[in-house]
Structure formats: C-alpha cells, structure tokens
C-alpha cells in the first residue's frame, strides 16, 4: 500500500506499525524498544506497543497492522 512499516517482536507476539514518527518523520525502525514502548531515535517520543499511542501527545498515534509470520514470510493486514 506504499507505506513504510516497522515490525517488532514483543512478549512473543509480532507487532507492525507505521514506521514514521508523526513528530518530525524519523524512522521508528531505527529507534529502540524498552519497557513496552518503541522510542523514536530523534526526540524520544515513545509509542506503546500494541496500541501505538503516544501517552504524552493526543495526536501521536500510529497506524497499526495485524502481523503474522509463516516460515520466512511476513503477512500484514490493516
């Protein structure tokens, strides 16, 4: 669909979400995962894995996809 997606494994589950931070467009795939959050590498915005909401910003929500792996293939569904 022409969107960049980041995928993380957390707590045994796969999560796929929009790879672009709504603040200034940083790639969240270049950030890090800690304490149940993915952290933006540029300014530290953090998004809760599973809901993709930024607790500090009302407008900081990422698109979330259902993700599943079968062998070496990854399947995403909005």
Describe it for me?
The structure is a single chain. This protein is mostly beta strands and 78 residues long. 0% of the residues lie in helices and 42% in strands. It contains no helices and 7 strands. The chain has strands spanning 5-10, 13-18, 32-34, 37-39, 46-48, 64-70, 73-77. The strands form 2 sheets. It has a 4-stranded antiparallel sheet, with no helix packed on it. The N and C termini lie close together (10 Å).
Fold blueprint:
Blueprint: E1 5-10, E2 13-18, E3 32-34, E4 37-39, E5 46-48, E6 64-70, E7 73-77
Antiparallel strand pairs: 1-2, 2-6, 3-4, 4-5, 6-7
Could you give a short description of this structure?
Helix content is 0%, strand content 42%. By secondary structure, the chain is mainly β. The strands form two sheets. Strands 1-2-6-7 form a four-stranded antiparallel beta sheet, with no helix packed on it.
Rg (CA only)? 12 Å
Percentage of residues in DSSP E strands: 35-45%
Task: Give the integer mean of the pLDDT values.
Answer: 93
> Helicity, in percent?
under 10%
Q: Kindly report how far apart the N and C termini lie.
A: 10 Å
Per DSSP E runs of 2 or more residues, the count of β-strands stands at 7
Tell me the major beta sheet: 4 strands, antiparallel
Unreliable stretches covering 5 or more consecutive residues = none
The DSSP helix count reads 0
Strand order of the largest sheet: 1-2-6-7
Helix-strand makeup class: mainly beta
Tell me, what's the shape?
globular
Series of H and E elements? EEEEEEE
């Amino acid at each position: 669909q022409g969107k960049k997606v980041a995928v993380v494994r957390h707590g045994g589950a796969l999560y796929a979400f929009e790879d672009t931070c709504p603040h200034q467009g940083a790639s969240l795939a270049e950030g890090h995962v800690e304490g149940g959050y993915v952290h933006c590498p540029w300014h530290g915005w953090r998004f809760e894995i599973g809901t993709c909401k930024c607790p500090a910003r009302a407008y900081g929500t990422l698109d979330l996809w259902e993700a599943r792996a079968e062998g070496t293939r990854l399947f995403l569904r909005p």
